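Table S5 (text form). Sequence records supplied for joint modeling of the two-component complex.
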Amino acid sequence: MSERPFIPASLSALDPRVEVWEGNRPVRPSLAGYPLKPGHEYRIRVVLPGFDSDRWLLKCSGSARLIDRVEQGDSDERAHEVRVLIPRGPFNFLSSLRKSAADITLSVSFAEGNRPPIELRVAFMFSPSVWVLLGVLAAFLVPLSGSLHSLSRHVTEFVEREYGYMWTPIWVTILIGSAVWMTVAMLYVYWKKRRQPAARARELWQRFEKTLNGMTTPAGGSGID
Amino acid sequence: MPTSNSDSTSVDSAALTPALLDQLREFENPFNDFVHPAVLARSMSTVHVPEINVDVRQKLDLAIDRFRRAAFEDQLVEDHQSHRAPYSGVILIKGKRGAGKTHLVNHGLNKAMNAGPTVVPRFFDTNRPFPEYLLHQLVQVLEGEASHCSQLNALANWFARRVLVDAIESLSETDWFIFHANSQTETSRWARFISPALSTRTDSVQQHRDNWSKRLGSDGVIAAASLSGFCESVGVVPDQLRLLARSHIDRREQGRTIGDRIRHRLYAALIEHAFAENRNGLNRFLSDEYTQVSDGEIDASRGTLVEELLGAVVELFVLFGRPVVFAFDALESLLGEPPDPELCGAFHSGIAELVESLPAIPVFVFAESGYWESASKHFSQYAAQRWERGIPIRRHGTIHSITMPLVNAKQLEHVVAARMQPLLAQYFNRALAEHEVLLPFTSTDVERVANSFGESPPLRQALQQLRDRYEALVFCDSVDNGDSQPSPIAVVEPLAIERDIPSGELHDLWIRELRAAERTLESTRLTALSDDLHAGLAAWLRCLRTEGSAVNGWRPMNISNKSFGNHATYGQLIICKWSRDGDQEQPQGIALLLATGSGIPNDLKTKLAMMSSPNRVVGQLRILWPKEINEAQPAAAQLPATSAGVWKQHVSNVEPSRVELASISPMKLATWLAVISFHRTLADRDFGQPEVLSHFVVDQTRDQYAAFVPGSARSAEPQPIAGELFQ
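The corresponding structure-token record, covering 952 residues in total, follows.
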């Protein structure tokens, strides 16, 4: 009988563990991945159970366009880290409206040559700031203020002619502007908080399901007679 | 009232009243029960006295404990890679006949709740490699257990839970969140729809991971519960958990050697077994499908496959904390009486090779002292050194041999008290006083039994003497004579009673073994019984030879088992050399088509391939198919479609007259199983007249003879059978 470890690999805790930290605060993932905010710096910390950090190396083998910078972070005796910086808008914000999710691919390689490297994919979701949103909306609405004002004037004339009410144009302008803002904000919230994360969650589940169903070797018995 | 023991100073003579005697006479002598056939082993618990052979039992417990301490739960340290399985070892337990060895095997080794499978082989076959022989015995034990106490179910459940703990802990936080959300049952999904928090409650979801791991990994009641119960309680779809465990195994077990591939398939089969309602998959793997594992380059040899599977199973049981114990008892029935030199040498060397090549196996050999001395003349020095390695036992050093002590008076008092207690309790209807527990005996009676030969007798002999003394005290009228001297203890010649078994008792024993065999056939798959069926068939044919019967002039002359090919389960047959009217012997192979369902084509192919090979071991082969079929049609025409294709394809390569397929009633196989246990029980009782025994067996099974004589079966090519079979 050939020599092999007594404890099966299936029962040995060997997989790397990934944690994402912002300063001293751990970032918890959502179904769509880790929510990373623009202008913030994050630390991705990787621990390999049973291995001191001097027996393996961590490097970033690929990152998304939405990430500004990825660099090697600090290490201690148990873990290695990489630091990632998420840039501020507005261009990043606009591109995030189209695609807000991506992966950072990390690679764990061993000093001992007989172990194959392990690849890790850290899924994240770009969550833009509400203030940036307001700023962008304002930037779009200010150039349109003249058109909005003439629209208000038409509305007040129509109401006075048809129904005999006297409305102040400035209030009508504020009302229409608020309605536009609210509609856009709701669409934004739906898009960013529901639509994009749901699509991302579905994508991640499909990827995970593919891993679950990716068995190539039949069981010792299918359990089906 | 004075009784025969009225002179004893240690008894309260008033306690043995006529009323008590009258009451005792209503019951059978409780000491009649001094020898059991194997089929009644379970009921022996009623006469089990823990104080007997307690030292031996404790040492054997400690020996098993050495392997139990290698359990996975005790090894949860960081670097798993450095751990090695404890090496295997043998302990020889020698004792006089009737010292309680068989009782120790049936009750001493298997009492603890967390005891592993105990394999007690009923026969020994030199024609099979030793690991193959042990693997088949182990599989038979594992498959024969009822599902509620099945070791295989417990192992699968434990392994699946452990893998799930590791798989869940290995998931990244995101993957865990995704898995948790998508593996919920429909009710939980609707709850999430109503409260659609995609990014909230992450802390609580991560807490679920710890909770799941804790519940899956914890011992005791929760671990013993089924996985479906766990899934129900946490609201998860079982199939998702199953997939998670399977993918974890696929990802981790990626070695390419034969051993790695077998382990991978075994682990996957265990996961499927733990989750599946239909649990035949694992059984099929253990008896058949493992032979199809290869490393993708060359086909592994039969020996490699067997050793790797046996090693994987026993190591997993050790990690489970329930080591597999191999116990060899009643060596007379395994190695022959007197000891057969060939069998003795093969047995001794086989065990030596086993402990050297496979780890984590404790082997106990229970032998009668005199018999062992005779058998040991045929042992090799090389193997003896492996035996002497023994098993290290905590606080006892390394032990390779234990001598069973003789019973003393104090222990006999425990035996008497245990057997009399139910009877006396009925009479007194209260807790018994100290001086009442031995009634109707006195301490003097017991001491006399314990020193009847100037030394302590073996337990069985002491029980026989107690039985006779009880008869004298309770059932003989003369004992009422108050002036009589105490009757002497009847000195029973060792085993004198056992040698002369009345034919009625022999018949009862046969019927009992036959029923037990029928129950075994009903509860165990035939492939798991393959070894026993072949050994039983060979033993039965030897009975025919010894008895001297003939059918149409044909007599079996020489019977042997033979292995062939690469399939350890299907690749065996019996070679029977027949002689007709003193002519030259005609060898015939008899093979059993034991597979069912999808296994039949493979089984048939293995046998037919042997016949079409230039290295075939017989010129003629009769394949017996245990199946109730339409007798009007040839058996081959009634094979399932795929198997019929295999038959046609292979028979075209072989001269048709060389292969016959014949059906046999499945329940008739019980005869062969019964023959083994019948011989084994009688060997234990020293029934030393093989001719009488063979005659009896043949007499009971006369109707089966015809199916074996050349050219006389319901075969693919039906041949006429002579009207008068027996001369």
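Note: Residues 235 and 601 of chain B are 42 Å apart (CA to CA).
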